[in-house]
Design goal:
Shape: globular
Number of domains: 2
Number of strands: 11
Largest sheet: 7 strands, mixed
Structural class: alpha+beta
Number of helices: 10
């Protein structure tokens, strides 16, 4: 029996615990190393099957670009699979724009996972991730659905068993174009690569050893994109200082402009107390106390 609709599907954001630019390919793509961690701040998407093959998006909140990653993902999957089905895709956008939290990429990944099920394709995660990589470097991470140490241009993923943590996340009004940050003359592109080593027993199959995960949890590394972002947008530096004063640490995620602070692994009472520090945000800033996720909520939707 075929499905007709899928409602209330989450597209969670991610945080980069650090982001090192370790080189650049001949085609201009930058080579990165970064631990990606899923958090519970998410967009919500709804999908309804169409018999006429058309793909339409409906914005339930702020208007999105006319040809966003969701529609591009849907078209790519439809073309690659040869499916004659279409879909109405409705998006309740809750993640901030231009934040470096992967909102657009996560929406695209949720679209691939949802339409794979709605159209009865039964494609594997690996096959969906291959389409995702053509859409954006972060899309395969969200398709695979587990916290990961990401390398290359986003295609090399090593699973991480990330302990539950709380993070204070704030975003000033400015939205930073990723391309401009990567083209900034102040960007460092030769950070020494991290060699994540450990015994096979500790790492598990192709995973990241627990000792290295703990280094990442404790704030290892830096974000190489942060100095260029702060140069282009002083509000990023302001947000970093604002969090530093309240939580003792701060770091920009992705290419910005969102900045986060580690709050710790304490229970709900600590998280509630920490959330009080997000009161009285500067005008037009948005912020939220977030919790890390062990797995993507749709992580079991493809093999």
């Amino acid at each position: 029996m075929s499905l007709h609709a899928l409602y209330d599907l989450p597209a969670p954001a991610k945080l980069n615990m650090f982001l090192h630019v370790v080189g650049r390919r001949a085609d201009g793509y930058h080579l990165l190393q970064s631990p990606f961690v899923l958090i519970d701040w998410a967009d919500t998407l709804h999908f309804e099957r169409r018999a006429d093959g058309r793909l339409q998006r409906h914005d339930l909140g702020p208007a999105l670009p006319e040809d966003d990653l969701c529609l591009r993902a849907a078209r790519s999957l439809q073309s690659a699979s040869g499916s004659t089905a279409g879909a109405d895709i409705s998006i309740a956008k809750q993640l901030p724009w231009g934040a470096g939290m992967g909102g657009g990429s996560s929406d695209a990944a949720t679209t691939l996972l949802a339409l794979n099920r709605l159209w009865g394709l039964r494609w594997s995660k690996h096959r969906l991730a291959q389409i995702g990589l053509q859409l954006g470097a972060d899309v395969p991470f969200f398709v695979q659905g587990h916290n990961a140490f990401v390398e290359g241009i986003g295609e090399k993923l090593r699973p991480m068993a990330w302990p539950e943590q709380h993070y204070a996340v704030v975003k000033p009004p400015a939205a930073l174009p990723t391309r401009e940050i990567f083209e900034h003359p102040a960007l460092r592109r030769d950070t020494d690569p991290v060699i994540v080593a450990g015994s096979p027993e500790e790492a598990g199959r192709s995973g990241v050893p627990a000792s290295w995960v703990q280094k990442f949890v404790d704030g290892y590394g830096r974000n190489d994109l942060q100095p260029p972002a702060e140069d282009r947008c002083p509000e990023v530096a302001q947000a970093a200082r604002w969090l530093e004063a309240r939580y003792g640490n701060s770091r920009m995620t992705g290419s910005g402009s969102a900045v986060f602070a580690r709050v710790g692994a304490a229970g709900p009472s600590r998280a509630t107390d920490a959330a009080a520090g997000l009161q009285n945000l500067p005008p037009h800033w948005v912020g939220r106390m977030c919790r890390s996720l062990a797995l993507h909520p749709l992580g079991g939707w493809a093999d």
